[in-house]
Amino acid sequence: MSKFKKNKKKDAPGITTASLPDIVFMLLCFFMVVTKMRDADVKVRVRIPQATELQKLEKKSMVSHIFIGPPSPVYQAQFGSAPKIQLNDAFATPDDIMQFVNVERSAINPERHNEMTCAMKIDGEVKMGLITDVKTELRKANFRRVSYLANKRSN
User: Could you tell me the residue ranges of all domains in the chain?
Assistant: First the structure.
């Protein structure tokens, strides 16, 4: 008769964890797809100027970045406070731009060379002489599509 006692408390069933590996795998895949790895570590301080007429860059995979500005405080003891050019992860001179362009072009299909764009991210306080030197070297390398990055000016 002890089998049929009505006063017996029932224990709640345990929480099943069978679907937990599936959920973890879906989250891992989601973050792998959504996360963008940084291409270059910016070693110069860039305060982007503001502009009114802006266009969004298309085909961001075909964009090469050149950063121009004073070195960040970590590098000022080594390189000084004068504006520097950064190509990929290293400081450079205008003479190094030809080699930079050739390396960037060699990484893509030759038919798509005309689609490449150089995005210049320049600090607002940099003198125009350094920018002109960079543009001259880009012309010598036959790199004609140049854009300047800017923030939208709020009225």
Answer: 50-152
